[in-house]
Amino acid sequence: MDSDISPRFLTPAVSGRALLAAAGRILAPALWLGLLIGISFIETPLKFMAPGMTLALGLGIGQLVFAAMNIVEVVFFIVLAASCLRRGLDRAYLWVVGLLGTVLLAKVALIRPFLSGRTEAVLAGAEAGGSAWHYFYIAADGLLVVLLVTVLVMGVRRWVLPGR
């Protein structure tokens, strides 16, 4: 492989810890982004279009899926944050990671409990009209997508394709 075009993480001068940290800064957001797009923007809307899907069944499945997804998102964030403990990271990169954590915290700790309460009420027989909490959750997921793409682009430029 031509040394002028080889990614930084493939060079022998990189220590194991540095390689692991760089991998965490690339893989965690990439996997998180795939999870978010797959569940929030593909599976969820399609679920309600499936033949025979009732609102109660869709909401029940949604509660389980989003609870599990939020746990995985928190794990991805912890991996990403832990990989940022090394010195020498750009302030802009750290700001984006901080914003990711803030939006995730708002989504999991503020928005989702209200959304879950609304879902429980609908499952208990309350009117099934829309809720503003759904829009807040979708907005948080949309913002997470933008931030994850940003952190990935920044990370790839720095640790995979330096100098380009």
Give a concise summary.
The protein is an all-alpha fold. It is built from four helices and no strands.
Describe the structure.
By secondary structure, this protein is mainly alpha-helical. The chain has one domain (17-160). The protein has helices spanning 16-47, 55-82, 91-123, 132-160. It is elongated.
Task: Please indicate the percent range of residues in DSSP E strands (runs of 2 or more).
Answer: under 5%
> Uncertain segments of ≥5 residues (pLDDT<50)?
none
Main beta sheet: strand number and arrangement? none
**What is the residue-mean pLDDT, rounded to a whole number?**
87
Topology order in helix (H) and strand (E) letters: HHHH
Number of strands: 0
* Rg: 19 Å
> How many domains, in number, for the residues?
1
Helix content: over 70%
Shape: elongated
Q: End-to-end distance, in Å? A: 17 Å
Number of DSSP helices? 4
> What class would the helix/strand composition place it in?
mainly alpha
What secondary-structure arrangement, pairings included, does this model have?
Layout: H1 16-47, H2 55-82, H3 91-123, H4 132-160
Task: Please describe the structure with a list of short key phrases separated by commas or semicolons.
74% helix, 164 residues, 4 helices, mainly alpha
